């Protein structure tokens, strides 16, 4: 277990997507904070970003499990990727 909090920000263009790796006594916990993209600000596809998030989760947990998912509000640029 690492004692460091890690925050990864994914380049979605205009929108938000953060993956936090949080140390805990039970091991690292993964928190996905928003996952969206505004239609006018595409940097990468949400599908490609989801693959990156899955790979990170598999590297941490050995499977694609996220421990907590947070959607701050229901605007498209914060939730569009959650239906993948």
Summarize this structure briefly.
This protein has 84 residues and is of the alpha+beta class.
Helices and strands, with pairings:
Layout lengths: L5 E4 L7 E6 L6 E7 L10 H16 L6 E3 L5 H4 L5
Parallel strand pairs: 3-4
Antiparallel strand pairs: 1-2, 2-3
Task: Give structural notes.
- The relative contact order is 0.26.
- The protein contains 2 helices and 4 strands; from the N terminus they run βββαβα.
- β2 (17-22) and β3 (29-35) form a beta hairpin.
- It has helices spanning 46-61, 76-79, and strands at residues 6-9, 17-22, 29-35, 68-70.
- The longest helix is centred in the middle third of the chain and has 16 residues, at 46-61.
- Helices cover 24% and strands 24% of the residues.
- It is elongated, with a radius of gyration of 13 Å.
- Strands 1-2-3-4 form a 4-stranded mixed sheet.
């Amino acid at each position: 277990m690492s004692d460091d909090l890690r925050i990864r920000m994914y380049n979605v263009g205009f929108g938000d997507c953060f993956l936090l790796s949080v140390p805990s006594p039970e091991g690292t916990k993964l928190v996905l904070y928003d996952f969206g993209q505004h239609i006018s600000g595409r940097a990468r596809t949400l599908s490609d970003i989801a693959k990156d998030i899955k790979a990170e989760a598999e590297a941490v947990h050995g499977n694609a499990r996220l421990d907590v998912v947070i959607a701050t509000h229901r605007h498209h640029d914060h939730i569009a990727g959650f239906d993948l």
